[in-house]
């Protein structure tokens, strides 16, 4: 960096050094902006889950097909069941050896609260193997 002198005899030539301070300031400001905005770009949440492209699960004959429609109607292996009788049915199934798997087929527009309630009743009765059945077609 060129520093001035009190010597008058010396010829003052043009300053040949570049001032780097403004460039460093700009780079630090850009770095702070990128540090702040980068995490905001990665936290996007889009949820439309019921479609999945996975291989077909070959199930054993001892499983329970449990269906939930969007209007709240419940189906146990194809027959309509009321919510009040589920606890007793799950207890009977939980005592079997080997314990059957519970396959939940919920409509994509069904309320999650009802699905969670069914899972809670099954877990309290002792059913430990619970799975969800999805449509294996590709997402649109």
Give me some keywords for this one.
5 strands, 15% strand, Nucleotidyltransferase, domain 5, five-stranded mixed sheet, alpha/beta, 140 residues
SSE topology sketch:
Layout: H1 21-41, E1 63-68, E2 74-76, E3 79-81, H2 86-94, E4 101-106, H3 112-125, E5 130-132
Parallel strand pairs: 1-4, 4-5
Antiparallel strand pairs: 1-2, 2-3
Helix pairs in contact: 2-3
Proportion of beta-strand residues: 15-25%
What would you call the structural class? alpha/beta
Helical region count?
Answer: 3
- CATH structural class of the domain at 63-132: Alpha Beta
CATH-assigned fold name of the domain at 63-132:
Nucleotidyltransferase, domain 5
Strand line-up of the largest beta sheet: 3-2-1-4-5
Instruction: Categorize the overall geometry.
Output: rod-shaped
Uncertain segments are none
Helical fraction equals 25-40%
Average pLDDT rating? 80
CATH architecture field of the domain at 63-132? 2-Layer Sandwich
Topology order in helix (H) and strand (E) letters:
HEEEHEHE
Largest sheet: 5 strands, mixed
Q: Could you characterize what this model shows?
A:
There is one protein chain. With 140 residues, the protein is α/β, with parallel strands linked by helices. The protein has 3 helices and 5 strands. It has a domain of 70 residues: Nucleotidyltransferase, domain 5, CATH 3.30.420. It has a 5-stranded mixed beta sheet, with helices on one face. A hairpin with a 5-residue loop joins strand 1 and strand 2. Helix 2 crosses helix 3. It starts with 20 loop residues before the first helix and ends in an 8-residue tail after the last strand. The mean pLDDT is 80.
